[in-house]
């Protein structure tokens, strides 16, 4: 019997869908389109690690946003555990925003 392989594409899409429900309170764009999510790792044990940043180190939601991300990702049935790591390397800039986000904010 071979070990079941994770359908990472499908799980990745679920994770992205959840991330797109989380908004920066100061900008009417979700954190995924804002480019705040740098990387998402899923291992064979369905544990997720998310590497993300904030718009600034003094972001008013620096304490609550990572917790919200962690809780919402953990709510996906297949996910056993989630860890959110905040980094400011590289620092966030408007260049990381998707075209959709820039359009939404009138930057295009």
From TrEMBL:
Pfam families: FeS_assembly_P. Residues 13-86 form the MIP18 family-like domain. It comes from the Bacteria. InterPro entries: Fe-S_Maturation_MIP18, FSCA_dom_sf, MIP18-like. This is Iron-sulfur cluster assembly protein. The lineage of its organism: Bacteria, Pseudomonadati, Bacteroidota, Flavobacteriia, Flavobacteriales.
